[in-house]
Amino acid sequence: MEKVEVGKMKRNRIWEMGEVDFFVVSRWILILLVLFLIGYNTARFEYMAVAYRIAVIYVIFNFIIRFRIFKFLEEEKFMFLLFLFDIGFVSVALYLSRGIEQNFFIVYLLTIVMAAMSSGLRSSFPVAILSAVLYMWIGYTTGVIKQFNDPAYLLRLPFLFLIAFMSGAWADMMRKKIEKKEKMMREEILKLKNFYERIINSVNAGIIVINTQGEVMLENPEMKRMFDKGIIKEELLKKIMEERRGNVLLRIKDRYVDTVISSSKKEDLIIGIVRDVTDLKRMEEELEHSRRLADIGKMASYIAHEVRNPLGVIRGMTQLIKMKFNGEVLNDYTEKILKSVEMIDRIIEDTLDFARKKPLEIEKVNLGELIREIVESVPIKKKVSSKNASVIFDNTGGCVINGDRMRLVRVFENLISNGLDAISDGGYVKISFKRDESNVYVNISDNGCGIDEKDINRIFEPFYTSKKHGTGLGLSIVKKIVENHGGMISVRSKRGEGTVFTVQLPLYKKVKDKEVCYEGVNR
Amino acid sequence: MKVLIVDDEPSIRYLFSEFLKMKGFDTDEAENGIEGLKKFHKDNYDLLILDIKMGFKHGIEVLEDIRRQGYNTPVIICTAYKHLEEDVRITSSENVEFLAKPVDLQKLWEKVERLLGLKTNAG
């Protein structure tokens, strides 16, 4: 959680919670009383000008306090100076107006109450003491008080202290109450903060709050995790700012995020709730892919039955013609028909193979022997002799693996046959093995025409072919079979120099069940 | 020797019939499993050629029926689904051969020879 600070209410200023107004009002009263005090004693009229000047300064000073122009005036240490000023002001007024002879000492009470309200007993008592001392001193110096033990004045002094005690104690009590309430509120706010933080932190979705300038005000841990996983922050912010509202699926580089965007009531904050749905999206895509394959399967199955019947008739009838009638030209024609029939049949078989979901039948397979059998099989030998080519088979490193024999034959027959198709007369296809602790690597290389750079990334895609008569399914079936065996296939090629296919397969492991876990497609 | 060809495709029946006649066999035809069974019970056949996918009664059902009734007549099963070969073998492994579509007359003849022991006799 960032930039959210709730529950930190520091009370280091004295003017909080409306106290400023209380002081200002009290001091207005103080000014009025003092002016009245001076004015009441007309005998001292000559001092009114001075009194008014002081009052004006006092008023200006109060404005400064009220509108908080100088922040340092709000510091607690300054407060005491303020009270000293007030006491001095009152004392000067009493002195000048000879108000000491009247009952105007009451004005001191106001300063004591103000001090009590501000800082409780610790202010009210010093102010009371100071007021008492000044009061007695003024009385003595003006000759009003003849003796310090004059009961008329001595009776007034305890009254100052009584007011100091009562107002100070009351203010302290109120302050404690307020502080207690404040503490409770702070705890409550903290609890709430923790509660919301827990919710925000445990939500299984990224939460991001930004202001209208696009600055991040809040992001929860899940959101940070998403950024770590590769969602680009700047791009997400940009798209959220653009959308402003609604539920949108955003694509950020190679990832998909489902984002619910809303704005605060004042429209000053934009809130995004983000879910990384990349895996879900990929699953959907895979599901769609599987559906397509299933459709191909159904179609292939339909074709298999519906096309193979008439195809059989074409082949059979051609064979009958060949048997009944002889002749060089006729033989040539019938041979061509039969070859075309074979090609159509191979297309059907490839399509069926690609779409079929039959589990592998795993057995112990000697890979070296299996490839030797393929190399020595009639179709491969036919191709080799037709091109005057050679197949160089190095059985060193050939080993035993867990595999489906028939499907592995399909893999290597296809790769060797492709190599032979790619070479020119007199070319070669070379087969060799490499091994590490857990895998065998079969390299099938040729010195043929090679594969164009633009084609190389697509050769394992279904229905993609650069051959004139290919179905485009051969290599995708090969890849599927290899992956179903827990292996991998890769290709390197250079135009004009040749191609190397590398089939990586896991080495033989003893397994309890006959069928090991190669069923299904590993992606 | 007499062969019963059971297939819902007339051109296939015609092809097999022509070929087998050329090879010196007598042939009879049926266009579905029910008709095939009827004919099978009426006459004596040395060989049955059954298509798997047919209306009314398919090839496997016909094969199971005749085996259940105690007949061990050689049977050639034709199917467009090559991977069904195994299932057919599991159902009845004795005197049964599998012929994948599109049919190849050479392969058909190999299977006929094997089932009827013609190759051994000739050899």
From TrEMBL, chain B:
SUPFAM superfamilies, alphabetized: CheY-like (SSF52172)
Protein origin, superkingdom: Bacteria
One Pfam assignment: Response_reg
Entry keyword annotation includes Phosphoprotein: yes
Keywords for this protein: Phosphoprotein
Alphabetical list of PROSITE patterns matching this protein: RESPONSE_REGULATORY
Matching InterPro entries: Bact_response_regulator (IPR050595), CheY-like_superfamily (IPR011006), Sig_transdc_resp-reg_receiver (IPR001789)
GO biological process, alphabetically ordered: phosphorelay signal transduction system
Ranges where the Response regulatory domain occurs: 2-116
SMART domains reported in the protein's UniProt record: REC (SM00448)
List of residues that carry 4-aspartylphosphate: 51
Name the record gives this protein: Response regulator
